[in-house]
Automatic annotation (TrEMBL):
It is a single-pass membrane protein. It is found in: Cell membrane; Membrane. This is Sec-independent protein translocase protein TatB. Residues 88-122 are annotated as: Disordered. Transmembrane segments: none annotated. GO terms for cellular component: TAT protein transport complex. Signal peptide: none annotated. One of its GO terms (biological process) is protein transport by the Tat complex. The gene is tatB. GO terms for molecular function: protein transmembrane transporter activity. Gene3D superfamilies: 1.20.5.3310. Part of the twin-arginine translocation (Tat) system that transports large folded proteins containing a characteristic twin-arginine motif in their signal peptide across membranes. Together with TatC, TatB is part of a receptor directly interacting with Tat signal peptides. TatB may form an oligomeric binding site that transiently accommodates folded Tat precursor proteins before their translocation. HAMAP family: TatB. It comes from the Bacteria.
Length: 165
């Protein structure tokens, strides 16, 4: 870029004052300022567009890199799963060949191992673990009531009046 110092700008201004005259010089200076501003905006727009295109290219490269990495991971996982499945099938075939009978092929697998006992979780027992006094205090309903019975239960006692202050 051309480097203008203060002395060069003063020389150009003096020449322009002599050539153009004092009447036309402000209008010409304003026009030149507008043109320089437009040129700077145009140059900055071009720079921004170039930067955007460079960033877009970098993002496309990153995207292809990620896609390649994901594809490689997927292939390696598929390969390992296939190998593990083949090994399991081989082991399963070896195990079932020794225990197979002609009448029931799953006879050895039908009974659970000895000593195993299913943990019986009694949800009724858990539900009854809350003390009755806590249920009454919190208003937990222990049995269903009809609407009329509920109204009668919560109806104010006859003869009891509330004093208003």
């Amino acid at each position: 870029m051309i480097d203008f110092g203060f002395d060069k700008i003063a020389l150009i201004g003096a020449v322009a004052l002599v050539v153009l005259g004092p009447e036309r010089l402000p209008r010409v200076a304003r026009t030149v300022g507008h043109l320089l501003g437009k040129a700077q905006r145009y140059v900055s727009d071009v720079k921004a567009e170039v930067n955007r295109s460079i960033e877009l290219e970098e993002l496309k490269k990153m995207k292809t890199g990620f896609e390649d990495a994901a594809r490689d991971v997927q292939q390696s996982v598929s390969k390992e799963m296939h190998e593990a499945n083949a090994e399991f099938d081989k082991t399963w075939a070896d195990v079932t060949d020794g225990t197979r009978s002609d009448t029931d092929p799953y006879q050895a697998l039908a009974e659970p191992p000895p000593g195993y006992k299913h943990p019986k979780k009694n949800w009724r027992l858990k539900r009854g673990a809350t003390p009755q006094w806590y249920k009454q205090r919190q208003g937990v309903r222990t049995h269903a009531q009809s609407g009329a019975a509920r109204v009668a239960r919560f109806r104010p006692v006859a003869g009891f009046t509330r004093k208003s202050s």
